[in-house]
């Protein structure tokens, strides 16, 4: 068994707080002291510990996977970490090596973030260096691309997930917003500075419940003014005058982050509340207030799959808050609500979140707190908590079905995603349907989106079934306990114990517990709470038994109560030894003989005791007049021949009893108890055999005493005078013909017993605390432990000792508390940080590749496979059209690729049974299978692509006229008609049964059957995080809600004008007129606003007025009044022209917003198509975003062309197959050239992966060029 260098970590440092991250790769990393610990959450195992930092790790970030993966861009575990010395290290986690290392200054890095919203490079890392410097690094080369210094001290930053140009900084007393962030040059501006003025929580609660703002009500008006001062710009807020208000500064703000589900929203976390700010109006639109009896917030996670907030509390509990669905505006103002109608409009309520579940609190103490939490971004229902005492706790959010009417909560029920709508279809009809695949196989739940229905639209639930959420603890991982006092390795590996050997190292702690660490796997396997005081020593009695002793710190009398226990590690049985002793002198040493027959106990001020290890009986206590021992050591080389002779002379039937050998070479180990059925016979044989053993001890005068022990007899054979030059001997070690002494002055003395020569060597390192020979026959290496480090020596052929390697602590590493040999060339060092380092012989490296960690459970992570194997596994799970069935193994690879085939098959076998059952019967074929595989891989780019693609493929199939329907106005009919065009995806009345008041539309049975089948493809709306990719109706409804919310928050004239403009743009002219007429007579713009109100109220779409207004609008735009010109164009229904002008003048986001909110689908599609082209330009370079836009427009052919141009051949081939399954594309003369080109390149891609069968299949689909390539495949793979 070969042991490799590794580290097992212990408690965290205070600066490690929040230094944790759970990446898309499915792996958790967190900072522990100056190390980075990497954990596999599935198997709950530590799989890597990274060691290169000198300072304490303060930041940890996994690289994003938002790019297309292939052989040139393989799946890899890349991690960035930063420390308190300002050094940033980028790691290759699989190999345990650093890719690059760079720094700017020597202060702790405040924040790290990998750039993800761009396609230019995936190596860009943004770092915040104290006090106010933002630096963009090339993480691959360590090159500084640019550095921007701001004027305020900055604490953290957060990116807008919807717009990569937007960035927000949290300062000491302000927030800074930057909207010009680009990777090619340093941001030019210093950003916009805002200060927070926060009313009391009580006042905020009242404001949240206020229904509408009455213009005549002074109380509401004052309240609105107070609300407007939530976010004030450029100058610090003045001290409040009102008695109710209290100023809450940003010094109390714990976290600043953009909302991942709602655009333009930002979250401010305080200990007792969470503020939700809308950046378009700079006001609070929602508050989550903490109950007085609840534990304070410490961190909040915003989910993207659903509008859900997960909050971490000070007591270690996690709470889930789900966005409340409110009665919001969904239709334009009804008739009768004119310009002079004082009836208040429908006002949407504030953003509110309901508490849905909370995990159990943890036992948090002053010495044990939650130091970090991380949410798994792929599933968003898995959370990891990192405790300060090294424990890692994994929680999983689970959903159980309940009857919605039986819930006793005051909140509205939650609903699961809707299943296939088989309404109106008989069982015979279902059996004849081949697509979608209808089966009884349940769909595996892979995340939050599989648990809860979409936040958009109305979910009516499945037969009244709701969802009840709960947290379940799925894993607990322990590290090394704090304050390790002693460490002892189990007996070494021999030929006799090869089949049962486990390299286990015992660690004693200050608290009295003993931990067993497996140095091959790097895991803490067991922990025993044994003693009531500090563990002072551990000695192994066999491979499965150890003896430990403990005592508290002596008082003035110098006497203590010694605790001595014999522990069976298999059963956990604890046997006390010397339990009848009162207070006495503390134990100095306990040494077990090499044959595991005896052990001696040396006391500080009491005669030495000799004990029988098997019977736990005292053999002899030396006379009181005998000198007190300072060091004791058993001989490893005596009595082996006599042992064998005695075993042969004993009963012939018992001489073959299984005796575990754990000593040096062939030295056997006697177990006091065994788990073997032959334990009784073995014990009898042991009782009959008593072998002579030797030990030596030294006294304070350095005199050496040599004893012989046999049975119950002990004799003092030799008394050797002290060695000249030695002071008090503190440690002894004996191996072969060599006996090594170490004294309190750092003198090392080597006795060559065979040559009868002694050699004295000064170490110049002070007190030698411990000496230990390395295991292994003829291996004469040994170490000496000093206060300031460790020396490793070797005894040469000439009998002289020389220093091979040394390490100084705490100069080169943390202070070494104890050291042991984990293997013949593996020193194991325990530091004051309670970290165990299994090191190379030179004591310079304690890391090795993950493949060398001998883990108990195989890690299912495709990122640990080779580049070919990972991509091949993905391809096999996505589709297998070259086979008749779906299989989870591959064969037929070339001889040079047999290792690849073996690795792929081994990984496929790790898939759980539910996934292996579901993938062949995936409901929506290739598209859904690709989405499932993307989530298994944590492939961010693929997840977003296939989520949007599957939605619009289903929409296209469910409602072939969805493009026309999406362009209609928001009416109850279009809302409830189902499919992707509407917001309610389960219709009240199926479309094939709809009727009018006058005529019943009779349809043929065949036509009704087709419409029933179409209902199978209905999908819930896209989640709000996809923003402009949602269908137009959903998008417009949400924008109307937002404008109504802004309307309810009006407090200033500028805010009112902004609301009026938005109402005009959205066609809500009646409410716009009301707002324009609110302008006070004293205002300078009173006359202009009055005229604007008249214009908006009286505008008609007559030819003459249209031409005049269009001319005026054009002139306004040309003169720089873009907003006013666009409003005029919208008044005369020239929204497309307005969007074109906005795009021409660079207002792309505004143009898209206006098109999605107001235009017919055809016109909107033109605007969106132009925007997609803009995303593909070299200046923007976001082709991946353009792809999603084209998908949302239903331009599937264009998507294939674009994927081909981007060389995403595997994704293009799968997308073509998905489109053919959904009948979204057909093979025609126009499409054949593109399809053949894609399949040809995909065949070449598969050839590079070594999969000849799959390549042959796609060659057959690639026309004439494919036939030529097939000939090459036959030659390459030896096909006949």
UniProtKB/TrEMBL annotation:
Chain ranges of the WDR11 second beta-propeller domain: 501-776
Residue ranges, annotated region (Disordered): 194-222, 654-686, 964-984
Recorded GO CC terms: cytoplasm
Boundaries of every WDR11 first beta-propeller domain copy: 10-327
Feature: compositional bias, Low complexity: 200-212
SUPFAM superfamilies on file: Quinoprotein alcohol dehydrogenase-like, WD40 repeat-like
InterPro entries linked to this entry: Beta-prop_WDR11_1st, Beta-prop_WDR11_2nd, Quinoprotein_ADH-like_sf, TPR_WDR11, WD40/YVTN_repeat-like_dom_sf, WD40_repeat_dom_sf, WD40_rpt, WDR11
Annotated WDR11 TPR domain residues: 914-1227
Coiled-coil spans in chain: none
Gene3D superfamilies according to UniProt: YVTN repeat-like/Quinoprotein amine dehydrogenase
Name of the protein: WD repeat-containing protein 11
């Amino acid at each position: 068994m070969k042991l490799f260098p590794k580290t097992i970590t212990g408690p965290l440092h205070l600066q490690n707080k929040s230094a944790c991250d759970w990446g898309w790769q499915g792996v958790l990393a967190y900072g522990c002291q100056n190390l980075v610990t990497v954990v596999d959450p599935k198997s709950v195992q530590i799989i890597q510990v990274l060691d290169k930092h000198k300072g304490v790790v303060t930041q940890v970030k996994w690289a994003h996977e938002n790019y297309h993966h292939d052989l040139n861009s393989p799946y890899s575990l890349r991690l960035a970490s930063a420390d308190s010395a300002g050094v940033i290290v980028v790691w290759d986690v699989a190999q345990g090596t650093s890719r690059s290392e760079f720094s700017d200054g020597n202060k702790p890095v405040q924040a790290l973030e990998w750039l993800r919203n761009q396609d230019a490079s995936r190596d860009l890392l943004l770092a915040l260096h104290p006090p106010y410097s933002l630096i963009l690094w090339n993480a691959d080369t360590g090159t500084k691309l640019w550095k921007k210094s701001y004027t305020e001290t900055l604490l953290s930053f957060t990116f807008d997930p919807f717009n990569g140009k937007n960035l927000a900084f949290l300062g000491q007393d302000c927030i800074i917003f930057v909207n010009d962030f680009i990777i090619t040059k340093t941001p030019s501006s210093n950003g916009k500075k805002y200060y927070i003025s926060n009313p009391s929580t009580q006042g905020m609660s009242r404001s949240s419940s206020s229904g509408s703002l009455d213009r005549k009500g002074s109380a509401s008006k004052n309240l609105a003014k107070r609300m407007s001062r939530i976010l004030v710009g450029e100058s610090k807020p003045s001290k409040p005058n009102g008695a109710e208000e209290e100023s809450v500064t940003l010094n109390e703000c714990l976290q600043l982050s953009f909302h991942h589900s709602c655009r333009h929203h930002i979250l401010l976390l305080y200990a007792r509340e969470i503020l939700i700010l809308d950046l378009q109006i700079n006001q609070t639109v929602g508050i989550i207030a903490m109950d007085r009896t609840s534990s304070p917030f410490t961190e909040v996670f915003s989910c993207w799959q659903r509008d859900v907030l997960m909050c971490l509390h000070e007591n270690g509990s996690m709470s889930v808050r789900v966005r409340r669905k409110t009665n919001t505006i969904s239709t334009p103002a009804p008739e009768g609500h004119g310009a002079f109608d004082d009836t208040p409009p429908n006002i949407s309520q504030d953003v509110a979140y309901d508490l849905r579940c909370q995990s159990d609190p943890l036992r948090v103490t002053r010495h044990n707190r939650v130091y970090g939490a991380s949410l798994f971004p792929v599933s968003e229902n898995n959370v990891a908590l990192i405790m300060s005492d090294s424990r890692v706790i994994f929680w999983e959010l689970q959903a159980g079905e309940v009857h919605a009417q039986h819930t006793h909560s005051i909140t509205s029920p939650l609903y699961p995603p809707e299943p296939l709508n088989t309404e109106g279809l008989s069982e015979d009809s279902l059996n004849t349907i081949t697509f979608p695949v209808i089966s009884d196989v349940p769909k595996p739940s892979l995340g939050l989106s599989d648990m809860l229905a979409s936040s958009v639209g109305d979910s009516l639930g499945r037969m009244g079934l709701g969802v009840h959420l709960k947290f379940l603890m799925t894993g607990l991982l322990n590290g090394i306990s704090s304050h390790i006092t002693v460490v002892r390795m189990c007996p070494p590996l021999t030929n006799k114990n090869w089949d049962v050997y486990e390299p286990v190292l015992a660690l004693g702690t200050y608290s009295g517990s003993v931990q067993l660490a497996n140095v091959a796997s790097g895991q803490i396997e067991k922990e025993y709470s044994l003693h009531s005081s500090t563990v002072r020593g551990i000695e192994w009695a066999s491979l499965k038994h150890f003896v430990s002793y403990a005592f508290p710190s002596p008082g003035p009398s110098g006497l203590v109560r010694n605790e001595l226990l014999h522990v069976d590690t298999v059963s956990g049985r604890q046997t006390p030894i010397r339990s009848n002793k009162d207070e006495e002198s503390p134990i100095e040493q306990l040494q077990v003989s090499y044959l595991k027959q005896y052990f001696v106990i040396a006391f500080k001020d009491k005669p030495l005791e000799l004990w029988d290890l098997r019977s736990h009986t005292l053999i002899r206590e030396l006379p009181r007049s005998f000198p007190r021992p300072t060091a004791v050591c058993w001989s490893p080389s005596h009595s082996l021949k006599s042992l064998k002779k005695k075993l042969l002379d004993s009963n012939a039937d018992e001489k073959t009893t299984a005796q575990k050998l754990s000593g040096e070479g062939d030295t056997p180990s006697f177990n006091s108890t065994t788990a073997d059925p032959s334990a009784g016979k073995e014990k009898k044989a042991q009782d009959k055999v008593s072998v002579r053993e030797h030990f030596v001890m030294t006294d304070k005068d350095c005199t050496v005493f040599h004893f012989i022990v046999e049975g119950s007899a002990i004799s003092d054979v030799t008394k050797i005078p002290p060695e000249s030059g030695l002071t008090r001997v503190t440690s002894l070690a004996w191996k072969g013909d060599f006996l090594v002494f170490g004294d309190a002055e750092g003198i090392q003395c080597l006795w060559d017993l065979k040559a009868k020569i002694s050699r004295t060597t000064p170490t110049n390192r002070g007190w030698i605390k411990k000496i230990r020979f390395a295991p292994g026959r003829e291996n004469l290496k040994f170490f000496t432990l000093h206060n300031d480090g460790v020396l490793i020596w070797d005894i040469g052929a000439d009998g002289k000792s020389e220093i091979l390697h040394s390490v100084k602590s705490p100069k080169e590493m943390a202070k070494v508390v104890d050291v042991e040999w984990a293997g013949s060339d593996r020193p194991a060092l325990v530091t004051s940080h309670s970290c165990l380092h299994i090191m190379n012989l030179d004591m310079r490296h304690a890391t090795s590749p993950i493949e060398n960690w001998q883990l108990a459970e195989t890690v299912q992570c495709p990122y640990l496979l080779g580049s070919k194997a990972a991509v091949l596994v993905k391809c096999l799970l996505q589709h297998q059209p070259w086979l008749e069935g779906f299989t989870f193994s591959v064969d037929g690879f070339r001889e040079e690729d047999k290792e690849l085939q073996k690795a792929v098959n081994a990984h496929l076998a790790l898939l759980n049974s539910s996934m292996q059952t579901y993938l062949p019967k995936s409901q929506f074929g290739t598209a859904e299978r690709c989405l499932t595989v993307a989530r298994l891989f944590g492939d961010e780019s693929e997840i977003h692509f296939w989520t949007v693609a599957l939605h619009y493929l289903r929409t296209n199939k469910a409602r072939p006229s969805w493009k026309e329907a999406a362009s209609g106005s928001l009416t109850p009919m279009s809302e409830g008609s189902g499919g992707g065009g509407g917001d309610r995806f389960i219709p009240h009345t199926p479309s094939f049964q709809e009727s009018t008041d006058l005529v019943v539309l009779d349809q043929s049975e065949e036509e009704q059957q087709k419409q029933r089948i179409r209902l199978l493809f209905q999908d819930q709306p896209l989640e709000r995080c996809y923003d402009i990719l949602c269908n137009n109706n959903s998008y417009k409804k949400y924008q109307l809600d937002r404008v109504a919310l802004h309307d309810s928050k009006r407090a200033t004239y500028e805010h009112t004008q902004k609301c009026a403009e938005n109402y005009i743009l959205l066609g809500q002219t009646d409410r716009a007129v009301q707002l324009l007429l609110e302008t006070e007579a004293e205002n300078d713009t009173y006359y202009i606003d009055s005229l604007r109100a008249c214009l908006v109220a009286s505008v008609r779409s007559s030819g003459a007025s249209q031409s005049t207004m269009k001319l005026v609008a054009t002139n306004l735009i040309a003169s720089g009044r873009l907003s006013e010109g666009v409003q005029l164009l919208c008044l005369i229904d020239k929204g497309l022209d307005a969007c074109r002008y906005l795009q021409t003048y660079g207002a792309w986001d505004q143009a898209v917003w206006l098109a999605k909110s107001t235009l017919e689908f055809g016109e909107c599609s033109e605007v969106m198509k132009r925007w997609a082209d803009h995303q593909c330009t070299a200046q923007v370079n976001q082709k991946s975003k353009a792809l999603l836009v084209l998908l949302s427009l239903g331009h599937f052919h264009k998507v294939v062309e674009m994927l081909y141009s981007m060389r995403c051949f595997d994704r293009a081939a799968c997308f073509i197959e998905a489109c053919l399954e959904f009948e979204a594309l057909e093979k025609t003369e126009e499409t054949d050239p593109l399809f053949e080109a894609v399949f040809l390149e995909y065949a070449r891609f598969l050839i590079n992966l070594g999969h000849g069968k799959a390549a042959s299949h796609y060659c057959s689909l690639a026309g004439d060029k494919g036939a030529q390539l097939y000939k090459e495949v036959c030659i390459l793979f030896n096909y006949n």
